[in-house]
Amino acid sequence: MDWLQDNAWAAWLGAMILLGVAETLSLELVLIMLAAGAGVGMVAALLGAPLWAQAIAAAVTALAALLLVRPSVLSRLRSGPELTLGHDKLVGAQAVALTRISGHESGLIRLGGEEWTARAYDETTVIEAGQRVDVLQIHGATALVHPIPELD
C-alpha cells in the first residue's frame, strides 16, 4: 500500500494519457474531461494528498468540467458561420438595372459581374435602366428586385 501511495502520481498520469488517447477516437469531449480530472488527481498525489483526497479532487474536477466546460466548448465547436451556396448567396445583394424592369416586363441587371434576368418584386413598380436595386428573391434564373431609394 505504501508503494501505491508513493507512486499514485504515475497511475494518475497513465490514466490521463490513456483517456487523452481514447478521446482522439471518440471526439465527444467526455474522456478529455475525465483526463483533466486525472491530471488534478496527479497534482494532488505529487503534493502528498492521501489517496481518498486525490480521488475526490479528480472526481470533482471531472464532474465540473463535464457540467460547466464541455457544453460551452461543444456549442462553439458545432456552431459556425452559415454557409450559403448557389442562388441563396445572391439574396440581399445589390445590383444595377441594365434595362427597364417592371412587374410585367422582365429586364436585365448586373449582379456580381453577371447579367441576370430580373422582374420587379412589386408589380406596380417600374425600375429604369441605371437604377440600383436590391435582390429580394431568386426564382429559377430570374431575380426579383426592388429599387433602392436615392437621396437627392
UniProtKB/TrEMBL annotation:
Question: Transmembrane region positions?
Answer: 12-45, 51-69
Q: Which InterPro entries did the record assign?
A: Membrane_assoc_protease, NA-bd_OB-fold, NfeD-like_C
Quote the subcellular location field of this record. Answer: Membrane
Q: Which UniProt keywords apply?
A: Membrane, Transmembrane, Transmembrane helix
- Protein topology in the membrane: Multi-pass membrane protein
Domain named NfeD-like C-terminal is located at: 88-147
Protein name in the entry: NfeD family protein
Q: Where is the signal peptide?
A: none
Identify the main location. membrane
Q: Does the keyword Transmembrane helix apply?
A: yes
Stored Pfam families: NfeD (PF01957)
